[in-house]
Amino acid sequence: xxxxxxxxxxxxxxxxxxxxxxxxxxxxxxxxxxxxxxxxxxxxxxxxxxxxxxxxxxxxxxxxxxxxxxxxxxxxxxxxxxxxxxxxxxxxxxxxxxxxxxxxxxxxxxxxxxxxxxxxxxxxxxxxxxxxxxxxxxxxxxxxxxxxxxxxxxxxxxxxxxxxxxxxxxxxxxxxxxxxxxxxxxxxxx
Length: 190
Fold this sequence. Notes:
This protein is of the alpha+beta class. The protein has 4 helices and 6 strands; from the N terminus they run H-E-E-H-E-H-E-H-E-E. Strand 5 and strand 6 form a beta hairpin. The longest helix is centred in the N-terminal third of the chain and has 52 residues, at about 1-55.
């Protein structure tokens, strides 16, 4: 009896050791994958934010709240808008938040690029100057493989487009939507 109990105990201890080893291996892999992604995004976000702002004085960075288990707590996103001092993200203007959010979006995309983006009225909180900066950034990135559909109601964005697609209603027996498109690639930028 004593021997069978000891054998069962040893067997259970070996299984527990294997389970712990497997758990630690998976935990390390999760950490490594998270940090690979985080480090890449953090290394790109400042460069992208500077490009979007068209100002080398702009700054953006990510900080982990818990370095040992980064996926268990938050990530702090800090931005310093051009010509301004550091403020919490909550205290930035709507336009500054939009540019910061786009920098984060494009930094995430740089890690694992998606085939294309659909951006729905991302220019809503932007003034014409910042719309031009964002549009120029998107146009520049499109030369490097980014495909982007931007839904906008602002003329400033239209001026930087390769094509325009309009949707309009037609009243018949029921309201039907029609589409018109205009290819702008052959039109000179004079």
